[in-house]
Amino acid sequence: MKPIPFNDLSRNSPAIVGALSAVGERVISGGWYVLGPESKQFEDEFAAFCGSSFAIGVANGSDALELALRAVGVRAGESVATVANAGGYSTHAIRAIGALPLFVDVEPDTQLINLDELASILASTCLWCSRYGGGVARVREEQTKDSAIQTIEGGDCNTSLRLHGGHEART
């Protein structure tokens, strides 16, 4: 049986290997592996790209989600609604702060959170909307306005998508 290249990142490598090698060499020769001028430049450029006044680089998506959960006030024992296909990183981040993941079904056509399940979600403290496969969940502010639920929208894989006639999804 021929294996399916589910996450074969080498398919794109030839097109970017030169640029990545140059950046790697610049970082290594500069002697700043963490929190140096390259990090600062990335944060400034990423903030400008997103139309934000600032951006903070972190090690990975789990760290970003954990910080976001803490920032909106999720505490140990509270539930965070998410989808199982968001990846282990989301469950890990939720559990890292002692919160409990509440897995919600996905829509068959998009693999994004099923909004028919919204009533059960609103009892949660937080809703983690993962962007899966380039899509943006159809959660709108008015759908959660009568609830105290906090909504975090993750977009580590597809930053600055647009949906719903201009709704810009941001990380």
Automatic annotation (TrEMBL):
Protein name: dTDP-4-amino-4,6-dideoxygalactose transaminase
Domain of life where this protein originates: Bacteria
Alphabetical UniProt keywords: Pyridoxal phosphate
PANTHER family: 3-OXO-GLUCOSE-6-PHOSPHATE:GLUTAMATE AMINOTRANSFERASE, TRANSAMINASE
InterPro entries: DegT/StrS_aminotransferase (IPR000653), PyrdxlP-dep_Trfase (IPR015424), PyrdxlP-dep_Trfase_major (IPR015421)
Membrane keyword on record: no
GO biological process, one term: polysaccharide biosynthetic process
Record carries keyword Magnesium: no
Species, as recorded: Afipia massiliensis
Pfam families from the UniProt entry: DegT_DnrJ_EryC1
Molecular function (Gene Ontology), one example: transaminase activity
